[in-house]
Each structure stands twice: as C-alpha cells, then as structure tokens.
Write a structure and sequence with these properties.
By secondary structure, this protein is of the alpha+beta class. It has twelve helices and 23 strands. The chain has a four-stranded mixed beta sheet with strand order 21-22-1-23, with helices on one face. A four-stranded mixed beta sheet has the order 2-14-16-15.
Amino acid sequence: MSDLIVHGGKPLAGTITPSGNKNSVLPILCATLLSRDPVTLRNVPDITDLDRLVAFFRSQGSSIEWDRGRGELRADHTGFRLRPGHDELPQDMRSTVLLYPALLHRWRQITLSSHAKGCSLGVREIDPHLDILRALGADIGDGDPLVIALPGGFRGARHWLDYMSVTVTENFAMAAALAAGESTLINAASEPHVQELCAALVAMGARITGIGTSRLEITGVEQLHGATITIGTDYHEVVTFLALGAITGGEVRVARSLPHHFDLITRAFAKLGVAIAHEGDTAVVLRQQTRRIPEPFTRNLLPKIEAAPWPYFSVDLLPLMIALSTRCEGTIHFWNKVYENGFSWIPELAKFGAQAVVCDPHRLIVFGQRPLRPAEVDSPYVIRAAVALTMVAASIPGRSVVRNAEIIKRAHPRFVENLRSLGAELEWK
C-alpha cells in the first residue's frame, strides 16, 4: 500500500476538469459482454478497478484496446471464453457481481466460490442479486460453491426491490434487456451512474423507459449491437475538487460539472457556509473569509446533512462534507442512512484534533473550528474516507501522512497530479 505525504496549509486555486465516472464505466464495460459486436467507450478514467476488469476479460480471450492517453477503450468479446482453471471471477472489487447477467446470457451457468471484497463500509449482500436473477428465470443452487444456471434464457418479470440498490438495479437492467417479454423493476435506484448504464444499454439497442425514476420498464430484445458510448463526468470528483478548494480557503473552478445534478449538493455546501456558483457547466467555489454553519429556524434542532439513495444527498459524498465541517464555525449533525460502518474512520479524524461524536452507527455530530494539528493517520479501505482525511491534512499547515491511501486510485485518476496543478504539495511514498 502507498502513503500520501501532505504538506498542508496552502489555498488551492485554479481550473480543473474531472475524469469519467468510475461508477458508470465499470457496469458499462460489464454490459459490453452482452453484445457480440465491438463497443467503444470514450472518456474512460484510468483507475485500478478498471485495470482488474480489463485483465479478467483479456485472460478469457476478449480483445481490449485501451488508449489511456485518449481515454478511449474498445471491447471486442468475440473470443471470450470461460477457460478451464479460470472460472473464478475477480474477487477484489464489488463490481464483479455486475458480470453475472452477461456470463449467464453467454454460458447459461456460473459458479461462485467466494464473494467480492468491495470496501469496508459494511456487508455487501448477494441475496438481492440472486432474487432478481431468480425472478428473471435463473435456477439458484443451495450448495457451496454456489451454482447459478439459466437453462432457458432470461424471462421477463415484475420485481419490487427491498431497497434502492444501485448494483441490483444495474443487474436487473442488463438481464431484462435480453429477456423474453416485458420486465418491470419497482423501487429502482436512480443515481446518475445507473442512468448512464441504462442510456448505454439503449445505445446498444435495449428498450428501456423510466430512466432516472424509481420504476424501470424494459422490453427485452433478441440481441444488443455495438455502439460508441461516452462516459459522463464523475460528479464525485467534481464535489471532491470543490470541497478541497473550500477547506483550504482557495478558489477552484471545475469544468463539466453536471449542474443539473447539483441542486441538493449545492444546498449541502450551503449548510456548511460554503457558496457554490455555476457558470454554464463550470462549478465554482470562491475564496471565503469564514465558513459558518447557519442555524436552522427550528432552533432546538441541529443543522443536518442526511445521505440516502439518490435523489437524496449521495452517501459517498458524506465523508467530504464531514471533513469540510471540521473547518467550519458551528455544530452539525450527519446522518448516514445506508452503511452501518460509514463512520468507522472517525477516530482517525480525531488524530488531527477534530471533535466529533459518533452517536450510533448511522449518526455523527461534528463540532467545527477546533484547533487542528498535523498528524499521521491510517486510511480505512473506503475511498471517500481516504479522500476526506487527505482534505483535512491539506487544510493544516505542516506535514501530515495518510497511510494506506492507495484505495484513492480506485476512483481518482492522477489524484496527486490534479491536486498539484491546483497548488497542493503532496506525494505518494
């Protein structure tokens, strides 16, 4: 693992363009396996999770041409085979589960001997994925290893999710796109990256309505064809650069910022006394003298930022707001409605001198503007928590170390280089 050495206390300033969305490109690349024709992806981010997925495809005979400089990837799965001795799927990322529909469509059976690792936010259950595969015609074994068979191909079905799961919704969309008949998913996730996957499937010939809502209706087609698909901007990176500008007292402009997704995000920044402006498709955080948390009209309640499935405030962005709140005047309540281990990294935040109280696994109170000092902290296996610790380090004059921060590379291409372009002093060691 790699450590980040951060020499903080310098206001960041400049203009930057974020990369393509990691949470879009992974399921879309998995979806290319549904087609017998080549598919070209543009604005592809250079991230380690994608390296692993590309390596898996190549090991099974796929032709993957990836021009990292241009951010363009061409996937041709004509030669794809699940080779003897290579039927174990890559298990070091949770997006592996997104291969299930395509593998079942091609080979009618897969064997699972272990579960994807993902990250440390909490248990990532496989049962909801098995439920939708079963609903769409798969036979699920009960042994270990687990055998999933699809003897007659996918069949259309109506299914109501227990909760708005992103990856379960994505798997349903991929399977239903090639199912015989009509399929309906109720309580579907609607995050921007889910919308992008559905749009990519439509570009490949799928028939999907309700994109961006909690109800997807899909009419199955016999086959999907090739297409050229551009991966959209990673709104997580947009928020990361803006939050870094705000916490360091700088002025940062982020191009291609997806302003149509930003209403609630802008409001969350405002709850921390930070104004975000939009100039066309560029988001701007201006240099501010104070960051004061406004008191709510209902004075007996703390101001609150709560995160839940989209269109709520994104839970993946909550650590960035927590980091920023340590530099704001006032007290604020954070509520993570998704992950049971979402605040497991807060003891590391306290090493900087931040004052935060974990009320229970889902609620946190931060008392802002406490004196902070440089520190050496340990990053958990959570991408945004590692970024949040780096944010705090960047705001404190002096040398800090964020140990085991390499997980940032799973989602942020050229993380150090991008921050250096804004005036930050940090390096991998």
